[in-house]
Amino acid sequence: EGPDGEECFPGQGLEICDLVYVSCEELCVDESLIDPNFICPGFQFPVCGCDGITYQNACIARWHHGVTTWTLGECDVFEIQIPVENDTPFYMTNPVENELRLGWKGKQLTEILIYNLHGQMIQRTLTDHDEDGFTQLDVSTLPPGLYILQVSDSEGNVRTEKFVKT
Question: Is 25 left (phi over 0), alpha (psi -120 to 50) or beta?
């Protein structure tokens, strides 16, 4: 029966055998679409994938990377800058495959936040440092795409950067 008490399929004699929960969120990358043997043309007609990565063309986005939706043209590159008093050099590996290594000269990092392009915080880490003052951050479980990194130091300074996960 439906929510109104009416039979959904009158006279069909259907039974519920299993409950299936379906997410209504759009799937950005569908790995079942990936076919490395699919031959795509080599022309340059950039598209911006829903994952925030620019691909050479739509065929490559879909069949080589499993991207389900895109817009024509390159992805917008945006800058987020938060002024920091006495700003000092910041070091970070970028792009990143599995491990992000970062350091802020003269600063002791205390917290690292990673946000997706929808502004949702997806990872929070309280930091440890190696002997060189650098922090290692495991990002191997993040899907490929563009991310926003926000770091805080022990004095309350905040710095925001973007990075690409490959």
Answer: beta
